[in-house]
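Regression test case RT-17, inverse folding.

Input:
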């Protein structure tokens, strides 16, 4: 009867491959090699899922873990420091600035500031620089993302 190699552990497989009579059972050697190779790839992919394929789940003013909303003016959002704690599920998350989003928003924001905001601010009798400040604040707010903290970094 053919041994069922899929029930063997990886160590048992390696053992069997090392001790098998290769002359008498060439097909079993093949089976062992195939089984071992499949173990190695599945081991590799599970390792990748743990480390390299870390999914930060970037969210726009939402908790990256439970995906509940965190308000712009909530205590959590306005707390100082890079790492914050979700008020809903207590999971830590960090804020990051998405430079790509910032770059995309920069040109329309500049246009809005030049043709809409600045004239309004000036018409109100305020200094034009205030509109630049407002736009910068909105821009940094729009490009801000909350993402999961890599568990390996939490020590
Ligand atoms: Zn949460």
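Golden output:
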């Amino acid at each position: 009867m053919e041994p069922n190699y899929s029930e063997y552990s990886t160590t048992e497989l390696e053992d069997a491959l090392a001790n098998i009579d290769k002359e008498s059972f060439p097909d079993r050697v093949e089976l062992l090699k195939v089984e071992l190779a499949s173990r190695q790839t599945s081991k590799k992919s599970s390792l990748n899922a743990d480390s390299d394929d870390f999914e930060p789940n970037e969210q726009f003013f939402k908790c990256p873990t439970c995906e509940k909303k965190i308000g712009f003016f909530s205590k959590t959002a306005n707390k100082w420091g890079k790492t914050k704690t979700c008020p809903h599920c207590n999971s830590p998350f960090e804020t990051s600035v998405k430079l790509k989003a910032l770059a995309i928003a920069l040109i329309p924001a500049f246009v809005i500031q030049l043709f809409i905001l600045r004239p309004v601010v000036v018409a109100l009798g305020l200094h034009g620089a205030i509109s630049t400040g407002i736009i910068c604040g909105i821009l940094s707010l729009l490009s801000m993302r909350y993402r999961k903290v890599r568990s390996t970094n939490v020590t």
